[in-house]
Design brief:
40% of the residues lie in helices and 17% in strands. The protein has one domain. The relative contact order is 0.15. α1 crosses α2. It has six helices and nine strands; from the N terminus they run ααβββαβαβαββββα. About 2% of the residues have low confidence. Strands 1-9-6-2-5-3-4 form a seven-stranded mixed sheet, with helices on both faces. A two-stranded antiparallel ribbon has the order 7-8. The protein is of the alpha/beta class and 248 residues long.
Amino acid sequence: MKKFRIKDLFLKYPLLDKWRVLGLAGIFKYGITVYDLSYRVMAVIPEASKAYVRASSANSSSENGLATLKPAIYAYFHGQMYVLLGLSPRNRMSLIASNSRDGEMIARAAEFMGFEVARGSRTHGGVKGAFNLINAAEHNRSVLFPVDGPKGPFEIVKAEVIRLAQITKLPIIPVVSRARTRDLMKSWDRYNCPYLNTKMVYVFGEPLEVPANADDEEKENLRLELQNYMVELKAKTSEFFSYAEQAN
């Protein structure tokens, strides 16, 4: 006897699946708004990245310097997708979401937050998604890229982000974060779930440039450099609140 799966029920009844997507998108939409307004964000931004980066909570009224920011590729780990909440200005940023049903929910929530969404991923419409991101960069928009997505391995940077930087000529700005209080999900990406009203620290890296004429060996070296750099930055965020408590 075939084992019953909820997924099979949704596949059999498309209208039911449509309601599921709309319902969960609505939950994400309003749930993210609550998270958005409750975070207290602190950011560490190196001097070399200040021409590209501003980090603030969504309810901040400060617009100082946002108009002069240069576009970049923000590289983050899939399990820290919440870093998107602390980036500004959202109306000049594009992210990628797959053409899957779950991607539809992510896309709807991201659009509500103010981001532009390019549809497609390695497993669902990857070529179209890549072209959409390249087009966004050509229109002076920053690109948000989960470097170990969509399905891992955990914290292993994929080559796509290096190729994207080479094509668009945008620098890669690594960004990692840590919530003072959080839960970790038992998923491949060990997704971080920050508690409401918790303090957040964002740590940005220095820009990484990919030469237009870089060969395969150079690009692989840059991929490893980015991967090691992001793991190193993440380790520093883990120590941040311990140091802060000792200082107090």
